[in-house]
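If you are new to this repository, start here. Below is one unmodified record pulled from the training split, so you can see the exact layout before writing a loader.
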Amino acid sequence: MTGLRPHTAAEAHLRAADPAAPMLADPRLESALDALGARITAHPLPTRERRSLRRLGVRTGAVLTALTLGLVGGGVAVAGQFSAHTGIFGWDGAPHSEWLRPDAPDFLPVARSLTASIPFAPGDSAENYWWIFLQRNDDGSITQFTDAGVKGNIAGAASCSWQRVWLSAHDRGDKPGMRTASQRLHQAAKSRAMHDSNGAGYTKHLIDAADSGDIGPLQTSLRMACPHPKVPVTP
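And here is the target side for that same chain:
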């Protein structure tokens, strides 16, 4: 066809990631629509019901679409089989990082594999922070994250877990415990996850504060920046 602009690479990726594409290309869809149409026209509705359907407008179309999908064997299941991997890469600072879909059924296994090597303080774990990625926006949508963003958020949560340990040790006057927590903060800042997400610069002032025994920045970090664990953690 002439007059149509060629698809960009991004559009091609989006089309490839479209979970409904296999269903819409299914040759059974047309026959299912024909069968549904025949069943509807075979039983005309009384005048009052026809008026009610006209008032429903777009909602009627949505209901008929849902009915049609139900007639296509396995159609709904096909549409639901999409992956956390989008095949779309790149953002500022991490051009090789892939965008992930947190609403995909395999998101948590993918996220767990990405963050398995990130050490948390005893009693805490990444399982306490998946809510960061699964929460819905006001319009019902869900925010996509890059794999670097997933690792960075979990690495940040791990850093927060060691900040809690440091503060608890400080409150007890446990200097060896404070030193251990400081070492862990140093390790977290040097991790690949922090590097990939550009988070190392954020933690540097916290490490400096921990090394010098300055409690203020860590208290502020926990209060203002750290995500709350789903299950309360007592260091």
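Two things worth knowing about this chain: Residues 20-80 form one domain. Confidence is low (pLDDT under 50) at residues 1-23, 45-80.
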